[in-house]
Structure formats: structure tokens, C-alpha cells
Sequence to fold (349 residues):
Amino acid sequence: MKVNIGIIGFGWMAYYHYKYIIPKNGDFNVVAIYDIDKAKKSVAEQFNIKSYDNLDMFLNDDNFSTVLVATPNDSHKELVIKSFEKGKNVICEKPVALNANDVKEMIDASIKYNKIFTVHHNRRRDRDFLSVKEVLDNNTLGKPFLIESRVDGANGIPSDWRREKVHGGGMLYDWGPHLIDQILLLVDSKVVEIYAQLITLKYEVDDNIRIQLKFENGVCAQVEILTNCLIPLPRWHVLCANGTLNIDNFKNDGKMICGTLKEIDWTLESADNYAGSTRTMRARPENTIKEMEIPKKETDWFEFYFNYQRVLEDKEELLVKPQEILRLTQIIDLISESSKLGKSISCCI
Ligand code: NAD
Fold:
């Protein structure tokens, strides 16, 4: 099936979709754009894409039935609901909205107008995430007890609306949806406790954040999103009963060590080590551990659109389901609340 797409907001991310994410096999075509910035008209015209500066006229164009919304975060809800009203299916950029009530309204509108609604969670197809998922799904290292996921920027927040509260700026809304969504896909259990520190170092929004989630099955997760970090820690540090997995970066470099816990020789004479007077923090004896290869997954972001096409053809379920995003946003709401209150919040989501 051909998938003709109209884009609302032809900025950085929409251009990235156009150039790198929308498949180039002839089935997918960007046929029109609408942007409030008139300068985007000439950009679109370079690629022979029809450009509108009136939203109703854009949405009345019958040459496409899918709208991609890629505008600043605070404008998604209104544009998504209007697109449903005009009979379009919608792919919306993350964060789909700024609170769970708004997400609920968007889902209700998609049901009312019987339209497909999904959110572009491209990082569900990142290699590093899929490697961690495979290790946990296959129980390669036993049950996890602490999963750390972080991204470390060093240059602050890009100089646009992301620095402004009114547009839904800040790192919780920017990277939070990606990293928390990944954690929710890794741990099949309810979130029962949330604690967050949203730090504002340079701007009016959160620019360096740490979030802790505790799940009903006992797994704990920590997410860090930093924009002022000059010495990065690993992208993933996953501690399991029988081993540890480090993935250093988006390229998926890293190390995986397994070894079931055995009693070691705790006596004074037992080991040569550099840790001084501690016995607890000595390294594991070499003969009790084994390095394993990290499973490498070949993946790319085109898969999001191929899935969407198969959903239109009634052949598959959505890769990113609205109800999953509602749950994610409920958790994001509690993260904000925890940081505001300065204490942990019990929940069951
Ligand atoms: P941007 O500022 O580069 O582009 C936004 C565009 O929307 C601009 O051209 C602007 O003129 C236009 N616009 C603003 N308000 C509008 C409105 N009401 N109607 C029509 N056009 C409007 O921003 P960006 O970096 O492209 O981010 C856009 C969205 O994409 C955000 O929600 C962001 O979180 C998301 N994003 C996602 C990823 C990802 O990896 N999934 C990466 C970057 C950005």
C-alpha cells in the first residue's frame, strides 16, 4: 500500500524523517507540509513538496491520509486532534503531550473518529536498547536488580524552544519519553515507586535529571539525562543476579561478564589486591567469571514506518500503541511531581 504523508512542522526532526527515517522504496511519499514559519516553504519546494501556510487548507488536501506532527511539544495535542477531525491518521512526535489528561483526550479523539494514532518512539529500535532487551528476555545473566540507563550531553540544551517552559522544553519531555519507555519495555511489572531530581542548571527548564523507578517485581531502574557532563558513564549498566552488562555508547560497544556467585576465600592471606583493608570490594576471582559476547541486533528506524504501513493494511499491530504512551505519560507526570515535592511517590502503574 502507498503511504502518502503530510507533515505539520517542517523543522529539524521533520527533515530528519524526510531524509533518514521515511523509507525510500517508493511506497512512502511526503506530499505536503504545513508550517507557521513561511521560510519553510522554500525548503519544501526544493524537494518538490507542496507547502501550505493555512492549516485547514492543508488538512483538506486529499492527496494524503497520514499526518506527521513534528512541531514543538506544547502544540501536539491541538494539531493531532484537529487532524483526526479532518479524517487523517496521525503519527505524532514524542512527547505526544505534556500530561496524561491531554494524551487521554487525544486517544479519545482517535477512537471517536476511528483513526490510527501512534507516536514516533524511534529509540525502541536502537541497537543498544535491543541488545539489553535480548540479554534480559533470554535471562542470559539471570534476574536484573538494577538497570541504569543514561545519555550524557556536554553542550547544554539546543538554542530553541527546548529551553522554554511554555513550549514543553527541558530534558524530562525531550529524552525522558525515550529512556523511560525503554525501561518500561524491559521490565514486565508495574511501577510502584518513583523518585526524581530535575535539576535546572542554566535555563528555566530541567537540564540535568535523575529518575529512579521501582517495580513491583523488585527490579530498580535509574535514568539519567545530562546536558552538562564532560566525562560520560556507560549508556547502560545492567546488574543481574549472575552477571553485569555495560553498553558504553550508541554504537553498542561494551562488555558482558557472567558468573554465578560462589563463596570465595575470605581469609587474610587469600588475595593480592589493591583495595586495601576491604574484603567486600575485592575483584571477583578470574576463574569464576567469563566474558560473553553482547548480542548485536541489526536494526534501523525505517521499521517504524514499515510497521505503520502493515497496520494500514491490517496485517500487524502498532509497534507503539496509544495505551503504552498513556502509561508512559502518567509516569512522567509523577516524575515531575516527585521532583517538585522532593520526595518519592508510591503508585501502581
Ligand atoms: P524545530 O523547532 O526544529 O521544528 C519545529 C517546526 O515546527 C518549525 O519549523 C516551526 O516553525 C514549526 N511550528 C511551530 N509551531 C507550529 C504550529 N503550531 N503549526 C505548524 N508548525 C509549527 O523542532 P524539532 O527539533 O524538529 O522538534 C519537533 C518535534 O520533534 C518535537 O516534539 C521534538 O520533541 C521531536 N523530536 C523527536 C526526535 C526523535 O528522535 N524522535 C528528535 C528531535 C525532535
The first strand starts at residue 3 and ends at 8. The two ends are 37 Å apart (CA to CA).
